[in-house]
Amino acid sequence: MRTLLPLALMGFAILASSAEKGLFLDTASSFGKQIPPISHHTWSSELKANAGSFSGYEISPESVKLRISPEFPWQKMDKIQTLRTRHTYLPPECDFVRIKARALSGSFKVCLGGPTVYFGCSDVFSPEIEIIPDKSGDWKTFDFDLNGNLSRNMRRAGRTSGLPRPQYSRWVQEPLSLYALNGSSGELEVASIEYMSQGVGGAQITSSDESKAPENSETLANFANPSDHQRAFTLTLEEKLRPNGAVPVLVGEIPDGRTKIETEPGKVRVWHPPPKIGFEKDCVVFTKRFAEELVFGGIKINGVNGCNAIALKIKASPRKSPPPGAVLDILLISSPSCSAFDWKAFSVSVDWAKKPPFNFDAFMGWGEAGKNDFSLYHARALLPPDEWRWLIVPLNDFLCCYGEGAEGSANFAKMLPPKSSEIVGIAFLAPFRHCGDETRISVKEVRLAQIPAALDKASYKQLRP
Description:
Number of helices: 4
Low-confidence stretches: 1-18
CATH class of the largest domain: Mainly Beta
Largest sheet: 11 strands, antiparallel
Structural class: mainly beta
Strand content: 35-45%
CATH superfamily of the largest domain: Galactose-binding domain-like
Mean pLDDT: 88
Number of domains: 2
Shape: globular
Radius of gyration: 23 Å
Distance between the termini: 35 Å
């Protein structure tokens, strides 16, 4: 390794947060000209047809008014989605959300949140706040913490059912929404939703000069070398289907890139095929419409001692590029067995491998590890679309989201960061609600680096036990 230089001298931009400030703002115009009445997929067709008698919205240039009737059919729901924003990505600088609102009648208990990535925490919500009418009729501001005292449900818990503390901002998938809790009724008026920073999160290191590799780093994969092509692989975290039984029957395709399969007579379900792997000049390219967050394109690597960051020469090219850019979820795989890690233990059967769309290279379903000891870690990054960048992610920015075996289970229980010497793989996907279409993820190099202590920080606040 070479002598360490400050990243600022190497042409790297360090994006960091400052004191409390507003990041961006939703106003009444953000919600369009009309919002349909509240409805729920569990309701009968009769209830859905009469949804307008139970709730409604009135949009003006100044505000959005929400009406919920005392006769609203809550049934067994503890909360229901009301105002739905357009934000499927929250920057790490966003620590809380400030809503300017007032109750005109009745009483509302509300919270913020919604579904997270499929390998995350199901649905996650902020602490609830009660909003009641005030004699003055003045507007008030209400702050919703996105980092502390979060709650979750177990709608699709799977592997993260034992996660000690739920996470929201780093895993947001569906648009952030305002939820009304069971029993809320009356009229609530919302003037604005502001996304705020307290200076807790927000450190991301990138460089637009792809010719300048990070100093004090060691190359783990370089796709200018044809011998490294064998490192590329496809990965699924599918939990509901075992990869060594009978091959399911392919029923048909869904327009969003998924397929329908029959796992046994009369039982049809959705299946997520692997991404395509290709090689162009000096890079590997993973191409897919990443529906849900179970399927990754990955690179097998062997970690080294003494590093505190992963460095990637990478480009993300979504076919559609919604603001603020191309969002990537990055998964690190680690094991105390290091270079002796048994990848074959995660292979699908020969019958599966021969038959697309079941021909994944690695199948890390819940409880599939056997005697292997491994951990999965997550980080989220934002890149300018279709531009090569050196992206540096401190290992402290990775959150342990699952583990099996003695060390893996301990890492998961304590949500510890990965050790550079134990990394055996890195994988990528584009969260599907954000891009909503095919994305090409291109990688030229993977390195481990040693960055200064001042930069060795998590971007998203780490909510560890």
